[in-house]
Specification:
- The complex is a heterodimer of chains A (198) and B (112).
- Helix content of chain A is 75%, strand content 2%.
- Chain A contains six helices and one strand, in the order E-H-H-H-H-H-H.
- The termini of chain A are far apart.
- Chain B has 112 residues and is mainly alpha-helical.
- Chain B has two domains: 62 residues; 31 residues.
- In chain B, 75% of the residues lie in helices and 4% in strands.
- Chain B is built from five helices and one strand, in the order H-E-H-H-H-H.
- The chains are: A mainly alpha (198), B mainly alpha (112).
- Chains A and B meet through strand 1, helix 1, helix 3 and helix 6 of A and strand 1, helix 3, helix 4 and helix 5 of B.
Chain lengths: 198, 112
Amino acid sequence: MATEVSATHAAHTSTGYDSRKLFMWTFLGSDCLFFGALIATYILYRGRSLTGPYPKDVFNIPYTSVSTFVLLMSSLTMVLTLSAIQRGDMRAFRVWTLATALLGCVFLGGQAFEFTDFVAKGLRPSTNLFGSSFFVLTGTHGTHVGIGVIMLLSLFGFSLTGRIRQESAIYVEMIGLYWHFVDIVWIVIFTLVYLTRV
Amino acid sequence: MAETTEQARFPRIVRRTEAEHAPSQMTYIKVAIFLAIVTLGEVLIYQWNTNLTWLYIAVLVVLAAIKFATVVAFFMHLRFDGPLPRYVFVFGLALAFAALGVAVISLKAIGG
């Protein structure tokens, strides 16, 4: 049975995969475990808070749905970023990189507003089990998004100085994998934390 | 010549060009529209007032799993990248589910 390897990523390694890309997949696999632990903690503590506010008192589903939509669309712009650099279209690459970073900032702004709103409603990390597990989980995810935005803006800056070119597409692919991972984690959080009313 | 030598060293590896398997930009846009529609479906299901809690949760989890798999397969290119990255990622995912399962079972066992 043959193993198929993209020519772009073909490397002179025994696996045929670029080790940098394999590193990113391994990191993402371990990050699954990290977020899995946080999500498990949230689920185990759900419905065990002795005092309010409770999820139904603070969640604004239409608002969070818009944030979810923004993050999903940022995955589209990210994959278009990769497609652009693989074609050697640096202008499109810069446009899509900035668009992805901008959408990430919009998501982060939305999360900051949501946190502020929750605090105004009396929910803090120290208020109850729901507050502790919710802020740790979504805050960790937001931190990941923030790191992604910093990496995207760095890519944009490096492209202006010529340090990122078509030959460096592997780095864009690695950052793209990270960005999409942040997106799929949010898909799980949105369903299990926001939408399930148990 | 170099390629031939490499093929001789690693005969299990068959190289394909990016253009052969990378989805087109239109495919990416279609996938994004699909994801947006599924998200809209999730929000509509949220409005559904039902006593069938298990069914409500099952439908939402299935929709989330569809979105998850779609992003991983198309945007992360896992569908086109060969088996090794797939194994590595799925192994981490399986460990995460195992951790969740152990946590839930332990809590039930101690009567939590």
